[in-house]
């Protein structure tokens, strides 16, 4: 089969990696679980997507499995928002430079390549350049970045006025 033919056999929402194979960190487990199972020899069994499976596929990502796009995303947003929430109140130029480098590198190394590509293009627009002058500015910028992804995925926007309560102080009272 041609590469194109193989691609068309894939269940929906499976994202391929640069190596042409399904990319686990770019795909939701719910979609991944529908992929035809590999036999012990390592060859894909073409009949297996409709044949009864000898193992039961769990409905959600088991805790000892490599992260899917969602688990990776949740963990990464926790890290990114926490980093913004602990950034200096007012950041000296050296700190701003450091964070700017980090975000540029992050956009190149994030394991979900489609996510990284979109994040890089979003950040490259003048109006979306990282705002790194201090904690509040960076946290609000990060909230906008996250809302951009929420919108792309059809999720509700987060109220950015709540950034501090969510990521720094916790709910009061
Ligand atoms: P998440 O979106 O992971 O959010 C975790 C928690 O953060 C929420 O429970 C909420 O309390 C809080 N939160 C939500 N929005 C905001 C906000 N705007 N500001 C502050 N806090 C907020 N997945 C894809 O399928 N395709 C993509 O292209 C894609 N791109 C991504 C790009 C990046 C840079 C990252 C880090 C992740 C990306 N993801 C992508 C993953 C996606 O954003 C989610 O993490 C994943 O779908 C799991 O979503 P969730 O609903 O569990 O909560």
Automatic annotation (TrEMBL):
GO cellular component, one term: mitochondrial intermembrane space
Domain spans labelled ERV/ALR sulfhydryl oxidase: 65-167
Keyword terms, alphabetized: Disulfide bond, FAD, Flavoprotein, Mitochondrion, Oxidoreductase
Cofactor: FAD
Subcellular location per the Swiss-Prot or TrEMBL entry: Mitochondrion intermembrane space
EC annotation from Swiss-Prot or TrEMBL: 1.8.3.2
Name used for this protein in its record: Sulfhydryl oxidase
Amino acid composition bias (Basic and acidic residues), ranges on this chain: 1-10
């Amino acid at each position: 089969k041609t590469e194109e033919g193989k691609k068309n056999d894939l269940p929906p929402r499976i994202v391929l990696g640069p190596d042409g194979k399904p990319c686990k960190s770019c795909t939701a487990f719910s979609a991944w679980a529908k992929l035809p199972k590999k036999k012990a020899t390592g060859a894909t069994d073409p009949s297996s997507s409709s044949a009864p499976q000898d193992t039961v596929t769990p409905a959600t990502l088991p805790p000892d499995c490599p992260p899917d796009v969602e688990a990776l995303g949740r963990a990464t947003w926790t890290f990114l928002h926490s980093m913004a929430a602990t950034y200096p109140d007012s950041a000296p130029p050296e700190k701003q430079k450091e964070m700017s480098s980090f975000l540029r590198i992050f956009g190149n190394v994030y394991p979900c390549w489609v996510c990284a590509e979109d994040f890089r293009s979003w950040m490259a627009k003048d109006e979306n350049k990282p705002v790194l002058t201090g904690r509040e500015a960076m946290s609000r910028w990060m909230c906008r970045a996250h809302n951009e992804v929420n919108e792309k995925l059809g999720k509700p926007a987060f109220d950015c006025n709540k950034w501090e309560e969510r990521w720094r102080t916790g709910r009061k009272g």
